[in-house]
Design brief:
By secondary structure, the protein is of the alpha/beta class. It contains nine helices and six strands; from the N terminus they run ααββααβαβααββαα. The relative contact order is 0.13.
Length: 250
């Protein structure tokens, strides 16, 4: 006779599944950190790490490609462009240490996807809840502009993450480049005719054939937030909608 599945045993099994799933992402994250596919980007990141920014002169910069971060059982995926030279390239965590990260994690915390509203370093105690954050490119590019060839070389890492993050049901793309990167890495770019692919617009949402909800958003860069192109109210509405769709999928 099989043993009765007690609540305690069930919790232990769920914990085992979570740990195993987390371990499957670890080789991908390690591969990202060790990647040397783009010489221009690697040289730039190392140079920035050596020169530093005056206000961060006491930091030991990360200076390497930055892996994704979050809950391996996430139902919400946030895709950005690339690490910032003195943000992710300094701290080693995506969207961490710059104003864009301040906007992102404040919103994730507000809508229940993070345990705290700030992300300042890899050991600050931040934990994600049902959300994973990643990017189209994993190295900080000069002028925040990776080339198309560099994005193509990096796409494999995003594709591998998507294979493992198999509970994702809602995707937020921060900017046009993130939108295309996700569509290509997920395979929808090839599977859908051009006219049926989700277009890009702030707040524009689309439902894909498998039920995945795609939401476009302006990137919370200083260029957008300082000019008022992206306001807090507009930004919060994106995550309010994501929360609503995630809860609906429960």
């Amino acid at each position: 006779m099989p043993k009765r599945l007690t609540l305690k045993r069930h919790a232990a099994l769920v914990g085992d599944v979570r740990r195993n799933r987390a371990m499957t992402l670890e080789p991908v994250q390690a591969g990202v950190v060790a990647c040397e596919r783009c010489p221009r980007l690697r040289s730039w990141c190392r140079l920035v790490a050596e020169r530093k920014k005056r206000e961060f002169r006491d930091w030991i910069y990360w200076g390497r490609p930055v892996p994704g971060f979050g809950d391996p059982r996430a139902r919400l995926l946030v895709v950005g462009l690339a690490p910032a030279a003195h943000g992710g390239n300094r701290t080693g965590r995506v969207f961490t240490g710059d104003s864009s990260g301040d906007w992102l994690y404040e919103a994730l915390h507000r809508f229940g996807f993070a345990n705290q509203p700030t992300s300042v370093s890899r050991d600050d105690g931040l934990e994600m809840r049902d959300c994973y954050v990643t990017a189209a490119a994993r190295c900080a590019p000069p002028d925040n502009r990776p080339t198309r060839e560099e994005l193509e070389r990096c796409r494999g890492w995003l594709a591998r993450e998507l294979e493992l993050l198999d509970r994702v049901r809602v995707v937020i793309a921060l900017g046009r480049i993130a939108r295309e990167a996700w569509l290509r890495a997920s395979g929808w770019w090839e599977r859908l005719p051009a006219r049926e692919r989700p277009g890009f617009g702030h707040g524009a949402a689309a439902t894909l054939p498998d039920g995945t909800i795609f939401i476009g958003s302006y990137h919370p860069s200083r260029q957008n937030t300082n000019t008022g192109r992206l306001t807090r109210a507009m930004w919060h509405e994106i995550f309010r909608e994501a929360r609503r769709h995630v809860d609906r999928k429960t």
